[in-house]
Amino acid sequence: MSARDNKEFIRKMFADTANHVKYLAPDYVWHNPIGGGDLNVEQGMKFLAGLMAAFPDYKFTVKDQVAEGDKVVSIVTEQATHKGIFNGIPATGKKFMIDDVHIHRIAKGKIAEVWTYPDMYSMMTQLGVIPAPKK
User: Fold this and answer.
1) What is the pLDDT along the chain (135 residues), one digit of tens a residue?
2) For the chain, what is the domain count?
3) Deepest in the core among 30, 32, 62, 78, taking most CB within 10 A?
């Protein structure tokens, strides 16, 4: 696939969270700093299901992408309302909007590997879980 094809493939994946698994290679690895480290397909889908249960209106918006070879780097705005337990944190009812960097490696038309770097500090302050910095 070309760099342009790879970017479009990743955009489709972000827009299709209900069918996320169809984009993943059988030996997929998600390097997930908030989900307990490296996750395989089954573990990744379990984490994503928990995320979607806690934030049922979760939305990804791709702001920018760069692609080279088999990798696509995406800057994504993520927004949702906290309506269920997330990583042991009870629902706050608050909304958040953060930026996240995703690096996807594509092999044989599927996502083989992804590294994610969400702005958890901003998310936790917006949810009121940790105090916002003093101005």
Assistant:
1) 799 999 999 999 999 988 889 999 999 999 988 878 899 999 999 998 999 999 999 999 999 999 999 999 999 999 999 999 998 999 999 999 999 999 999 999 999 999 999 999 999 999 999 998 887
2) 1
3) 30
Q: Please report the sign of the dihedral spanned by the C-alpha atoms of residue 112, residue 106, residue 7, residue 20.
A: negative
102's tokens:
């995703």
Any domain includes 132: no
Name the token pair of 44.
Answer: 């990744």
Half-sphere exposure of 112 (CA within 13 A, CB side): 9
Look at residue 133 and tell me if it is in a domain.
Answer: no
Q: Confirm whether 25 is domain-assigned.
A: yes
In contact, 96 and 80? CB cutoff 8 Å: yes
Per the structure block, which two tokens stand in for 22?
A: 């169809």
Does pTM surpass 0.85?
yes
